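User: I'm preparing a small set of examples for a lab meeting where we compare how different chains pack in three dimensions. I only have the primary sequence for this one, and I'd like the structure in token form so I can line it up with the others. Please keep the answer compact; I'll paste it straight into my notes.
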Amino acid sequence: LNLAMTKRAIFWFRRDLRLADNPALLAALDEADEVIPLFIMDDDVAQRAGEHRRAYLAESLRALNDSLSHSLHVISGDPVTVLSDLQKKYKSSSIHSAFPFAPYGNAVDQRLAQAGIVLTQVGSGYAVAPGRVRKDDGTPYRVYTPFYRAWLAHGWRGPVAAPKNPTWVTPNKKDQQIPNWQVPAGTTLQSAGELAAHKRFKDFLKRASEDYGDARNIPGIEGTSRMSPHMRWGEIHPRTMLAALGSGKGHEVYRKEIAWREFYADVLFHNPHTSRDYYDVKFKKMKYDKPGKKFEAWCEGRTGYPFVDAAMRQLVKEGWMHNRTRMVVASFLVKDLHIEWQYGANFFMKYLIDNDVASNSHGWQWTAGCGTDASPYYRVFNPIEQGRRFDPDGLYIKRYIPELAHLSGEDIHEPWTVLDGLSKGYPEPIVDHAKERLESLERLEAIKALKPMKPEK
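Assistant: Understood. Below is the structure token output for the 457-residue chain.
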């Protein structure tokens, strides 16, 4: 190749750390002789992320670098500066990326446009891009079930293969600053990267997908796929997963879970303020308690309610929490401790390796009763009954709370009622659930007089 004539494009990896089914990457390779693969490290975001997420990202970047024949450019800094410098350095003709579809990424794109940096954008991290599925009158869906039906009817393309024989531009040492972030002591994170994602998904399909409808609710067994971190970082595309699903009941329930992720992304797309603020504004007027000692106990997994505490300890130990218990701990924070959902959502964001702003904020708002499709506010999860029902033998509780390992099935859910239940240092309950449930219903009555949002037919 005559170097003066070589056409180069930059491909900017954002939340799509994979080669397979990455249409934006194929577009870059179609257009140019050589592609400069780039990941821009935003130090501000990295600092906020917490050690678990940083360690996961570092492993994912190492895996991506391996699959790019060690050609991944990893540069820290502001995207405007990094992209304009790199464009000058390599005389690249274009910059390609997928659409970000989250408030932070959208704001970055706006700043790039203002600086005169042109992005060629194709695709997103969703089977159906947020904003595409609408009601007949053109307005967005506010309720999940009709959204799901319309989403299925809309459909999506099949996945595309990874690029064949690509030519990458290899960076110098200075342009490949892959961070050496380590997993925090005492923590075990699941493996990151595209290969790990495909391996885990194949394993899930074989092992647990048929029973997923029931097994996904039982945190003591490996009944879920744990694919959320891989989807969060785009190590696998949901289209790839959807293409492998059949028509059995377990597969149908799993498809619906993928659609929940897409529904929440759609809601956030139409209501960007809901990443931090209330979807149903009347809940802003509710009386809440300031986070103090009780909030600390919740964060540390020392509330005295075993099912809640096991989940909180799982979060800190694994950077992940079972979905059933995410709802239980959220209900406990908002309705037993009367603390605003944002405190819980922020704590989750610090630890979750699958932290996705749309799913996290809207999952919290769903449980707090102020979101879309809200589980009505007066539905309060009973932390003892939830444990009895979904962890009857206490397998999950014992895994994370060694202080209760000496108790058997029935006793483990209310250790304070058993003679030696608290003998190993497990705390008394910090609140009386029955009393706090009534308190939260009284606080709801106080805002009921405000005009509610009209529910959808």
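A couple of notes for your slides: The CA atoms of residues 265 and 358 lie 5 Å apart. The mean pLDDT is 94.

User: Perfect, thanks.
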